Amino acid sequence: MSTPVIDIHTHYVPAGWPRLDGEEVPWLRIDNEREATIMVGSGEFRRIQRNCWDAAERLADMGVDGVTAQVVSPTPVFFSYDKTPAQALKIAEVFNDAALKITAPSGGRLIPFCQVPLQDPDLACAELDRCLAAGHRGVEIGNHVGDRDLDHEGIVQFLQHCAEVGAPVFVHPWDMPNSARLNRWMAQWLTGMPAETHLSLLAMILGGVFDRVPESLKICFAHGGGSFAFWLGRLENAWHQRNDIIGTSEKPPSKYIGRFSVDSVVFEPSALRLLVDVVGVNHVLLGSDYPYPLGERPVGEVVRRASFLSEADRARLLGGNAAEFLNLPALWETP
């Protein structure tokens, strides 16, 4: 049996969606048959290609890279956490239904994750339940809602519900701070995204979230968990030395290793080795950030080049860990 290769981190954008009057949703400018531009108001946010919405294009690229299946998650600019809960729910419903249409022709190889109006935990739980019943396998959330981080009571309520219904959660950074210093060189993406993910992992630990949610919660953080793995020692030292300030968790930070996973989008085997050493070989899942330009292609190249991995561990990173995270059946072990 060959090892399944399962990409946990990819995004989609529908080719179009019904007009949402008064919602001020980012919109799509179709440039030609193969390209479009995500517009935020009158400004260009990102150029995208047909592979964002066309299953055949995605499946062809997966064939080139040897990918068995990929999780298809929302593009974070459409989360709409700044809208009213009712507006955000309407937008989520439209995009979640579109995701099912995009992934339907794949024979199960494209695995949809939904989005929810995270600013309202009751609506978020209800939309998650609707989507799971319709065919979504999990949910992608942003790493914060305005000034509310993942330890906010409402978000904790939603995470508790995810654990109860067995929905895997993928956390993606978004809405990074901007300034004159950060608006050069894509610095928001190069420094802001890793910092945002690091900060959210601190919220999960120091905010006591892991003490309040069941251990059954399956949660994975994008981009290798940001800078968390590199600075775990600093966090651990601070917890012991200044427990009067940051000692809100029941246990030292290192004791929560094993409660979460990260993806493998770190681009270098040396960085991947740090992840494996810190979070454990069972908690690093293959990711690519496909189809965006800061993603990894060919998908899985860094895992395949990592000479420090045994073949059994390489198989876990390429697909075994993701199969467990997604509760996929054994049929994903393809001949």
TrEMBL record:
The keyword Zinc applies. Pfam families: Amidohydro_2 (PF04909). It comes from the Bacteria. Residues 6-328 form the Amidohydrolase-related domain. Its EC number is 4.1.1.45. It is an enzyme of class 4 (lyase). Keywords: Decarboxylase, Lyase, Metal-binding, Zinc. The keyword Mitochondrion does not apply. Pathway: Secondary metabolite metabolism; quinolate metabolism. InterPro entries: ACMSD, Amidohydro-rel, Metal_Hydrolase. PANTHER family: 2-AMINO-3-CARBOXYLMUCONATE-6-SEMIALDEHYDE DECARBOXYLASE, 2-AMINO-3-CARBOXYMUCONATE-6-SEMIALDEHYDE DECARBOXYLASE. Belongs to the metallo-dependent hydrolases superfamily. ACMSD family. Monomer. This is 2-amino-3-carboxymuconate-6-semialdehyde decarboxylase.
